[in-house]
Protein backbone atom coordinates (compact mmCIF):
# COMPACT_ATOMS: atom_id res chain seq x y z
CA UNK A 1 0.00 0.00 0.00
CA UNK A 2 1.50 3.36 -0.93
CA UNK A 3 2.01 5.94 1.85
CA UNK A 4 -0.42 8.47 0.33
CA UNK A 5 -3.25 5.96 0.35
CA UNK A 6 -2.43 4.91 3.91
CA UNK A 7 -2.49 8.52 5.12
CA UNK A 8 -5.88 9.15 3.46
CA UNK A 9 -7.29 5.96 4.92
CA UNK A 10 -6.38 6.89 8.49
CA UNK A 11 -7.83 10.36 8.01
CA UNK A 12 -11.27 8.81 8.43
CA UNK A 13 -10.37 7.65 11.93
CA UNK A 14 -9.02 11.11 12.68
CA UNK A 15 -12.39 12.60 11.71
CA UNK A 16 -14.13 10.41 14.28
CA UNK A 17 -11.84 11.76 16.97
CA UNK A 18 -12.15 15.39 15.89
CA UNK A 19 -15.93 15.53 15.96
CA UNK A 20 -17.74 15.39 19.24
CA UNK A 21 -21.19 13.89 19.37
CA UNK A 22 -24.12 13.79 21.75
CA UNK A 23 -22.61 10.91 23.74
CA UNK A 24 -19.07 12.28 23.93
CA UNK A 25 -17.84 13.54 27.27
CA UNK A 26 -17.28 17.32 27.14
CA UNK A 27 -13.76 16.90 28.52
CA UNK A 28 -12.70 14.33 25.89
CA UNK A 29 -9.51 15.40 24.13
CA UNK A 30 -8.18 12.84 21.65
CA UNK A 31 -4.44 12.41 21.63
CA UNK A 32 -2.07 10.82 19.12
CA UNK A 33 -2.16 7.80 21.45
CA UNK A 34 -5.90 7.48 20.90
CA UNK A 35 -5.48 7.35 17.14
CA UNK A 36 -2.66 4.85 17.47
CA UNK A 37 -4.84 2.69 19.74
CA UNK A 38 -7.71 2.74 17.22
CA UNK A 39 -5.41 1.84 14.35
CA UNK A 40 -3.20 -0.73 16.03
CA UNK A 41 -4.94 -2.29 19.03
CA UNK A 42 -8.68 -1.69 18.93
CA UNK A 43 -10.65 -4.90 18.39
CA UNK A 44 -14.05 -4.53 16.76
CA UNK A 45 -16.78 -7.18 16.62
CA UNK A 46 -19.47 -6.99 13.97
CA UNK A 47 -22.45 -9.16 14.83
CA UNK A 48 -24.12 -10.27 11.62
CA UNK A 49 -22.77 -10.50 8.07
CA UNK A 50 -26.01 -9.86 6.21
CA UNK A 51 -27.24 -6.64 4.66
CA UNK A 52 -26.25 -4.42 7.61
CA UNK A 53 -23.17 -6.43 8.48
CA UNK A 54 -21.73 -6.17 4.95
CA UNK A 55 -21.99 -2.38 5.10
CA UNK A 56 -20.51 -2.24 8.59
CA UNK A 57 -17.57 -4.48 7.68
CA UNK A 58 -16.78 -2.46 4.56
CA UNK A 59 -17.05 0.88 6.35
CA UNK A 60 -14.98 -0.15 9.38
CA UNK A 61 -12.25 -1.66 7.20
CA UNK A 62 -12.08 1.37 4.91
CA UNK A 63 -12.06 3.75 7.89
CA UNK A 64 -8.85 2.15 9.10
CA UNK A 65 -9.79 -0.35 11.79
CA UNK A 66 -7.36 -3.23 11.44
CA UNK A 67 -8.66 -5.90 13.83
CA UNK A 68 -12.23 -6.87 13.06
CA UNK A 69 -14.11 -10.05 13.91
CA UNK A 70 -17.47 -10.99 12.43
CA UNK A 71 -19.93 -13.53 13.79
CA UNK A 72 -22.82 -15.01 11.81
CA UNK A 73 -24.38 -18.46 11.78
CA UNK A 74 -26.04 -18.15 8.36
CA UNK A 75 -25.10 -19.34 4.89
CA UNK A 76 -25.41 -17.41 1.66
CA UNK A 77 -28.64 -17.87 -0.30
CA UNK A 78 -29.59 -16.65 -3.76
CA UNK A 79 -31.99 -14.11 -2.23
CA UNK A 80 -29.03 -12.45 -0.43
CA UNK A 81 -27.11 -11.51 -3.55
CA UNK A 82 -29.16 -8.45 -4.48
CA UNK A 83 -28.40 -6.63 -1.22
CA UNK A 84 -25.35 -8.26 0.36
CA UNK A 85 -22.61 -7.02 -1.93
CA UNK A 86 -19.71 -8.95 -0.41
CA UNK A 87 -21.16 -12.18 -1.79
CA UNK A 88 -21.18 -13.63 -5.33
CA UNK A 89 -23.06 -16.45 -7.03
CA UNK A 90 -20.09 -18.78 -6.50
CA UNK A 91 -20.51 -18.26 -2.72
CA UNK A 92 -24.00 -19.82 -2.49
CA UNK A 93 -24.18 -22.24 0.43
CA UNK A 94 -21.00 -20.90 2.04
CA UNK A 95 -20.74 -19.27 5.46
CA UNK A 96 -21.53 -15.54 5.41
CA UNK A 97 -18.89 -14.82 8.06
CA UNK A 98 -16.15 -16.71 6.20
CA UNK A 99 -16.90 -15.23 2.78
CA UNK A 100 -17.28 -11.68 4.14
CA UNK A 101 -13.98 -11.96 6.02
CA UNK A 102 -12.18 -13.32 2.97
CA UNK A 103 -13.61 -10.57 0.74
CA UNK A 104 -12.42 -7.77 3.04
CA UNK A 105 -9.05 -9.41 3.79
CA UNK A 106 -8.28 -9.72 0.07
CA UNK A 107 -9.21 -6.13 -0.74
CA UNK A 108 -8.23 -3.96 2.23
CA UNK A 109 -4.50 -4.14 2.94
CA UNK A 110 -3.60 -4.11 6.62
CA UNK A 111 -7.06 -5.15 7.74
CA UNK A 112 -7.57 -8.55 9.35
CA UNK A 113 -11.13 -9.87 9.61
CA UNK A 114 -11.61 -13.07 11.60
CA UNK A 115 -14.82 -15.04 10.95
CA UNK A 116 -16.86 -16.89 13.56
CA UNK A 117 -19.45 -19.21 12.05
CA UNK A 118 -21.85 -19.75 14.92
CA UNK A 119 -24.77 -18.30 16.85
CA UNK A 120 -24.03 -15.37 19.13
CA UNK A 121 -25.36 -17.45 22.03
CA UNK A 122 -22.61 -20.02 21.38
CA UNK A 123 -19.93 -17.60 22.60
CA UNK A 124 -19.40 -16.95 26.29
CA UNK A 125 -18.93 -13.62 28.03
CA UNK A 126 -15.13 -13.82 27.83
CA UNK A 127 -15.36 -13.87 24.04
CA UNK A 128 -17.29 -10.60 24.00
CA UNK A 129 -15.06 -8.96 26.62
CA UNK A 130 -12.02 -9.06 24.33
CA UNK A 131 -13.55 -6.41 22.06
CA UNK A 132 -13.35 -2.66 22.52
CA UNK A 133 -16.23 -1.97 20.13
CA UNK A 134 -19.22 -4.23 19.41
CA UNK A 135 -21.50 -3.28 16.53
CA UNK A 136 -24.81 -5.08 16.06
CA UNK A 137 -25.81 -5.56 12.45
CA UNK A 138 -28.64 -8.02 13.08
CA UNK A 139 -32.12 -7.63 11.73
CA UNK A 140 -33.63 -10.47 13.74
CA UNK A 141 -35.26 -10.67 17.15
CA UNK A 142 -31.97 -11.78 18.70
CA UNK A 143 -30.72 -8.19 18.40
CA UNK A 144 -32.17 -6.99 21.74
CA UNK A 145 -30.42 -9.89 23.51
CA UNK A 146 -27.10 -8.64 22.15
CA UNK A 147 -27.87 -5.10 23.31
CA UNK A 148 -28.72 -6.35 26.81
CA UNK A 149 -25.50 -8.38 27.01
CA UNK A 150 -23.45 -5.37 25.85
CA UNK A 151 -25.19 -3.09 28.35
CA UNK A 152 -24.47 -5.57 31.16
CA UNK A 153 -20.77 -5.80 30.26
CA UNK A 154 -20.47 -2.01 29.89
CA UNK A 155 -21.98 -1.43 33.32
CA UNK A 156 -19.61 -3.93 34.91
CA UNK A 157 -16.61 -2.29 33.26
CA UNK A 158 -17.64 1.13 34.56
CA UNK A 159 -17.74 -0.23 38.11
CA UNK A 160 -14.14 -1.48 37.85
Automatic annotation (TrEMBL):
Protein species of origin: Cotesia glomerata
GO cellular component: cytoplasm; nucleus
GO molecular function, one term: ATP binding
Function: Catalytic subunit of the dimeric E1 enzyme, which activates NEDD8.
Pathway: Protein modification; protein neddylation
Listed name of the protein: NEDD8-activating enzyme E1 catalytic subunit
UniProt keyword list: ATP-binding, Ligase, Nucleotide-binding, Ubl conjugation pathway
Classification of source organism: Eukaryota, Metazoa, Ecdysozoa, Arthropoda, Hexapoda
Known EC number: 6.2.1.64
Family note: Belongs to the ubiquitin-activating E1 family. UBA3 subfamily.
Reaction catalysed by this enzyme: ATP + [NEDD8 protein] + [E1 NEDD8-activating enzyme]-L-cysteine = AMP + diphosphate + [E1 NEDD8-activating enzyme]-S-[NEDD8 protein]-yl-L-cysteine
PANTHER family: NEDD8-ACTIVATING ENZYME E1 CATALYTIC SUBUNIT (PTHR10953:SF6), UBIQUITIN-ACTIVATING ENZYME E1 (PTHR10953)
